[in-house]
Design brief:
401 residues, alpha/beta, Rossmann fold, Transcription Regulator spoIIAA, five-stranded mixed β-barrel, 17 strands, 36% helix
């Protein structure tokens, strides 16, 4: 059988698509790119964080239906808004991920052995979230927090190293809830695997510990990069969102990280246009992000999710105003990124090679800078580069070892 998979959303979805890919291949099935005629099975692994991701999933399912063959929707949208997907066509099979093995007559493995199309492999360490932020549907899709056994994680990372990977990204729905702590898990990975670089994906402010900050700032094999979603700089809005911290706490985290190592890259997420966000509240968010020594922002307009408390409050921010605020913060993100790049020119950084030419290479540094450099290397090599010239969105450099 020929199959095709396309994935929307987070690293956990991408990890689960890789599990499916390996399960189908183990049964003798062959993969082809999604959207090409000839697939006997097309799988859309959906996301439902925003109405836009919902629309993207529906469009992908329509494309698959037009090509014929069996069409399956799985992932978060299939879990919580399955009826909307079934309404597209009786031919769409809506199957939550936990049920997909029996439905496809395959055995979904407990670990991955590779990561198709990626130089860095994502490693899922936990599932679920119990915070229930008032705007977020994810806990309904992913359930209560539960952690993967550390021995299984160690085995998976060791296997990925043997397969040629030289960086893994620890991922999850709310990884700071990992039982025993992410810092303790990192210590085990550093001790028991040869993986030369481990990156921590997005981690919530109330779960970011001093021990994890110390590792990110001081342990050479832990990438110097933390992504800490703030969502708002207004304490009133954070309270309405159900976020258990205030703006001062986020500011103190950034200051603590930078005091240990100014070269650590700090990213954040911001949700704009949440119900009740007036000019004062947005101004507080903008001021916090202007002042904080962060490297980039991911900016999202608020999208009501049916079934969440905030969806019942109605939209109190005009869509035109929300778009203007999004544009302002995205421009701030561009300036923050350029300032961080300029601050690193002249420094040496560790880099994972993601593309290699005859005498050139491209890759991502430990502190999350995109670099183009002169020199010889192979894809997946880890090399040392000297950062020499800032460019728009990336840095030119030179391979020095």
């Amino acid at each position: 059988m020929i199959f095709a998979i396309t994935t929307l959303g987070c690293k956990v979805n991408q990890y689960e698509s890789q599990l499916l890919r390996e399960a189908l291949a183990a049964h003798g099935h062959r993969e082809q790119p999604f959207g090409r005629p000839g697939a006997e099975l097309s799988i859309v692994n959906t996301c439902t964080v925003t109405h836009r991701s919902d629309a993207q999933a529906r469009n992908l399912l329509r494309r698959a239906l037009a090509l014929g063959g069996r069409v399956v929707a799985t992932g978060c949208q299939a879990k919580v808004y399955g009826e909307a997907l079934r309404a597209l066509s009786p031919a769409v099979e809506v199957i939550p991920f936990e049920d997909i093995g029996p439905a496809l007559n395959i055995q979904v493995p407990s670990r991955i052995t590779g990561f198709c199309g990626h130089s860095r492999a994502f490693v899922n360490i936990q599932q679920g979230c119990g915070n229930f932020c008032t705007y977020c549907i994810v806990p309904h899709a992913r359930g209560v927090p539960r952690s993967r056994p550390w021995q299984e994680i160690i085995g998976e990372i060791t296997g990925l190293y043997a397969a040629g990977f030289r960086e893994v990204v620890l991922s999850g729905i709310n990884i700071g809830l990992y039982e025993g702590g992410v810092a303790a898990l990192l210590e085990k990975i550093l001790k028991e695997t040869p993986m030369p670089a481990v990156r921590v994906s997005s981690i919530e402010p109330w779960t970011l510990t001093d021990e994890l900050i110390r590792l990110a700032a001081g342990e050479p094999r832990v990438c110097r990069h933390l992504h800490v979603p703030v969502q708002s700089g207004s304490d009133a809005i954070l309270s309405r969102m159900g976020r258990p911290y205030d703006a001062r706490h986020f500011r103190s985290l950034v200051e603590k990280i930078k005091a240990l190592d100014p070269g650590v890259s700090i990213g954040t997420d911001v949700l704009v246009g949440f119900p009740g966000e007036g000019e004062d509240e947005f101004g507080q968010t903008r001021a916090l992000l202007e002042e904080a020594d962060i490297s980039y922002l991911h900016v999202f307009p608020y999208s009501p999710r049916p079934g969440t408390p905030a969806a019942a409050w109605g939209s109190t921010v005009d869509s035109r105003v929300a778009k203007e605020r999004v544009a302002l913060l995205r421009e701030l993100s561009r300036r923050k990124r350029e300032a961080f790049i300029r601050s690193r020119v002249g420094s040496e950084e560790d880099l994972l090679v993601t593309r290699a030419g005859r005498n050139s290479l491209r890759g991502v540094t430990s502190n999350y800078l995109m670099v183009e450099a002169e020199g010889k290397a192979r894809v997946n090599d880890r090399v040392r580069v000297l950062l020499e010239e800032p460019c728009e969105g990336y840095v030119r450099g030179r391979h020095i070892g």
